[in-house]
Amino acid sequence: MKTLLKNAFTAWPFCLATYVGLIGMTWLLLSSGRFAQVDIPVTLCDSRLAAEAQAHMAAVKLGATVFAVTDTGSMRPALQGGDFVVTRRDALADVKAGDVLIYRATWRPTGANLVIHRAVQKDSHGWIMSGDSAPHSESFARVTEANYHGRVIPPVFRAR
Hints:
Blueprint: H1 2-10, H2 14-31, E1 42-45, H3 48-62, E2 65-68, E3 84-88, E4 100-104, E5 114-123, E6 126-130, E7 148-159
Parallel strand pairs: 1-7
Antiparallel strand pairs: 2-3, 3-7, 4-5, 4-7, 5-6
Helix pairs in contact: 1-2
């Protein structure tokens, strides 16, 4: 057993596989499974009413809609309850990892099923999403053309 362990760290080609595995495990531990997050600029407004008004003005210019963020905390610190975001239904093919999307979540109760989370990875079934403060992605569901609502267009409008 002692010889096998020694060979794993010193004898070619076993040592290469051991070190590659150790480097990979270290990277996973240090990255903590967090996904690349793109900061969203924030426009601070004097009141919630002013934030909503500015968001609507921006939406009109862009041919977009306004979405009010609820206070679930899943997107903190980028988005907070009471924020207003401008969303536009750009082509889903144009979405990139790090974009913040609004979509109908099939796993939520009817009537409360619009969710705003970050696109973290695309696979053959669609986009895997995650809240910025969530420890894990929503690997059980995907954003597809069928449930995609739109992409957040910066900035976020927030009351002071």
